[in-house]
Amino acid sequence: SSLWLQSVVSNFIQFYLRCAIMSLGMFTGMLGRFASHVELAANTVALVFVLSPALQVIAVHRSKGDALVSVSPFNLISMYANCAMWLIYGLLYPVPPAVPCNAVGLVACCVYLIVCWFYAVRKHEVHGWHLWLADGSWSLSAVTGTTAALVFSGACYVYAAGSPAQAEHVGYLAMVVNVIMYGAPLSAVGRVMADKSSATLPPAQCVLGFLCSSLWLCVGLNNRNVPTIVPNGLGVQLAALQLLLIWWFPRTPAKVADESSPAAEKLASVSTEPTSKAKDKDSNSGTELKQRRGRASSPAPNDVPKAQEKS
User: Fold this and answer.
1) What is the pTM of this model?
2) Apex CA 86: angle with CA 106 and CA 26, to 5°?
3) Which of 98, 106, 249, 274 has the fewest Cβ atoms surrounding its Cβ within 10 A?
């Protein structure tokens, strides 16, 4: 029975893949004479997309590291890995059109990581093994992720330099990393849901990611290129989810506590307690001062009969 079930599942998967490949023929050549214009737009938007985190990094620099909480290390690390994989594939397979955009993106990602790590070390943020995939903290686990990305990209270059076939394997791996990069802003979804705020989601990168995936999906469908269709088809869905979260949750400060929550009430009571004590102390001292003045102005009980005798 298990063999029969396996054969049924295998036949179903083969049938589904055949139908999917046949359906791609419906979109082949759909762009017509606009194909070159769409490809140019896709490359331009991809270049702007890899430069979009510069807005957040500039904010980190201007705030002397205070805005570092709004930058996800997973976001930058995945973008670095994506640019590195595609650049290696473009250089060694070779695919010349993939080189310029990813070369610029690789340099930009290195600058992003250097600036963020500089302020993370300067502000003593690098401590603890937090789950940086979830909370976006620049902790020791993020150090491990950054180091792993650097070592892995170097190993992929050495492997791809062996032959064009091995470079093609790196290209397949770049497809996977590409999908991870498009979904990288969702690494902060836990914080977004907890704080009811989309402040940790970069709106510029999410919008550009949606446009970039959509354009490259059209190019892939037009050319019937499955390696282009698969990652960008998933990228459109992930970017749409990010935009939905940005639309649904307001962009308020990420760590503002709810005023009705017990923690906020406790914080408010603690913050007002010294003030109330000071006010009570001032009122008590004022009352004592009035009593002293009243005693000084009123005659002593023994002096009253003497004043009456003189009169």
Assistant:
1) 0.69
2) 135
3) 274
